[in-house]
Amino acid sequence: MNLELEDELGDIVQKARGRKPWSPADLARAVGMSAAEIGRIESCAWIPDAGALLKIAAALDLHGPSLLAIAQKAWGPGEVTPEPGPFEIVCLDVFMGLYPVKCYLLVCRQTGESSIIDTGGNPEAIIRKVRELNVKPTRILLTHSHPDHAGGLGKLILQFGCPTFMDKKEPRPSGGREFHFLQDEEWIEVGRLKIQALFTPGHTPGGVSFKIGKSVFSGDAIFAGSMGRANASWSGLFQSITRRLLTLPEDTRLYPGHGPATTVGEEKRHNPFFCGKIPVREPASAGLL
After folding, report:
1. Which residue, 16, 17, 64, 10, is CA-closest to 39?
2. Residue 195 forms beta bridges with which residues?
């Protein structure tokens, strides 16, 4: 069990307030606490007792037992076993300052061609890994263009000369030259592999997740036990997750931009934002396979 989650209790409470939207004082009034106490929770300086946490969960429409489990460090996703198949996933912890970001190399075993999924702010780490593995990047896929995910784009383009794939609604990252603007559910070929773009906006206007087989690179849309910050739209991000990602088969692996990998089943059962809220759909109606 991996308990090193990206978000702590305070992060989850702060993000959940955005749904209302409420100020810390609004939440304090709703649960009979002071704004200062809510501030201590959101700054990760204090964890109140179970009764107070359940009140907060009810006020913010979070699943109470799941929130308690995360606050008490009693839940984390199980180890995610890589999907067997014609590709290899290499995860790199690329730091922007002291902040870790997950970048990925998706390698076609048959041809050695690879895609770089998010570049991070330290492209030298990716360049070293590419040389170590002796693979050939032919595509750069961006889940979104925040600096911690796209800051190394310019150096990687100079090094490898490959095009960048992203949603046209996303702000253009610096250093980019040859952009390919994706259509929703478009297929991208890398060697003998086919990767599908799934639009998942909300964290940013043009957020994209990338799916191959039963593996999805979800950027900052969803984290193990939490969700991304809804900079563009809270409802949009919630719908992206519940309609595009958590309707996939339960054994689908989710590789986020921060924190540990998880699965659709783990998040449906344990994520306080989504537990008990996923609409039932027939597999054929999802249209994503």
Report:
1. 10
2. 188
Give the pLDDT confidence of 77-98 residue by residue, as tens digits: 999 999 998 999 999 998 877 7
Residues 143, 237: contact at Cβ < 8 Å?
A: no
Report the distance separating Cα 209 and Cα 219, nearest Å.
Answer: 6
- 79: in domain: no
**What is the sign, positive or negative, of the torsion defined by CA atoms of 239, 243, 247, 252?**
negative
Q: Is the pTM of this model over 0.70?
A: yes
236 is written with which tokens?
């949009």
In a domain, 80, yes or no: no
pLDDT digits (tens, 9 = 90+) for 211-269: 999 999 999 999 999 999 999 999 999 999 999 999 999 999 999 999 999 999 999 99
Amino acid at 214: K
Identity of the residue numbered 40:
R
In the Cβ-directed half-sphere of 225, how many Cα atoms lie within 13 Å?
31
Range of the domain at 163: 87-286
At residue 188, the 3 state secondary structure works out as strand
Residue 227's contacts (CB-CB under 8 Å, 6 or more residues apart) are: 15, 221, 237, 238, 241, 271, 273, 274
Q: How far is it, in rounded angstroms, from Cα 280 to Cα 152? A: 40
| Pair 123, 57 in one domain | no
132 and 46 share a domain?
no
Residue 269 lies in a domain: yes
Structure tokens at 241: 């997750």
Give the CA distances from residue 104 to residues 112, 135, 151, in Å, rounded to whole numbers and listed in that order: 15, 13, 15
In the chain, the number of structural domains is 2
